[in-house]
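User: Second chain of the day. Same drill as before.
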Amino acid sequence: MDKSLKMTIGDLNFYYGDVRALHDISLGFRTHQVTALIGPSGCGKSTLLRCLNRMNDLIPYSRVEGQILLDGQDIYDPSVDVVALRRDIGMVFQKPNPFPKSIFENVAYGLRVNGMKNKAFVAERVEKSLQEAALWDEVKDRLYESALGLSGGQQQRLCIARAMAVAPEVLLMDEPASALDPIATQKIEELIHKLKKTYTIIIVTHNMQQAARVSDVTAFFYLGKVVEVDKTETIFTRPSLQQTSDYITGRFG
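Assistant: Same format as last time:
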C-alpha cells in the first residue's frame, strides 16, 4: 500500500434506495494535500464527501459497496466506531452552522462530547484551534459571547476551528466559501493553504477559480463517475479528455 495515501477509495458504489448515485469510484488522497472535487450540481461530489465520514449512514435505504480505507483500515468495517471515525475525519459544511452557544463552547463542544473534563486542556485546545483557524485575534476578547454574533466568514472559520479541536487527521469541506463574500472567501482559501501542512483536505467546490487556487489535485465528476483526476495544474491547462475541457471552459455545467 502507498504509505503517502491517507485515504483510499476502491470501486465504491453508493445507492439511495434503487438509485445508484456513485459508480465505481476509485481515488486516493495524499497526506498534506488538498484534493478538489469539481463537477456540475448533482454529479455526486457531496455524496462522495459524506461517504468519507459515514454521514450517509443517517439516510434511510442508502447503501455502500466497495471500500474506503483510512490509514489502511476499512471505515465501513463493522468493528469501526463511527463516533471515533467522525472525530478523525472532520467536516465543514456549505453554510456556517455554529451552535447557539458561546464562541468558546462551540470550539470546546467536541472535546466535551468525548468526555474531556480537564479545563486547562480544553482551554488550550480552544485557543490553539482558533489560532489555527486564523480567528483567535478577532475573538479572544469575546470568547463567552454568542457565536451567532459573528459575521458569516467568522462563523465559518469558527466551524473549522470546531472541527479541528478534536485533532482530526482529515478535513472534509463541502463548498466552505459558497455562502461568503469575496474577502471572507479569500481568508478561507488562505486558511486552507496553511492547514494542509497539518491535515489531509478534501474540498467540494463549484468555483473553478477556487479549485485552481487551493488544490494540489483535482477530480472531475460527472453523473456519479470520476471522469478525470490529475494534478490541478494539468486538469486546468491540459486535461486529457474533451469532456473535462468543456466543463472547465464553461461549455456545460
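Strands lie at 5-16, 19-30, 34-38, 62-70, 73-74, 89-92, 170-174, 200-204, 217-222, 225-231.

User: Great, on to the next one.
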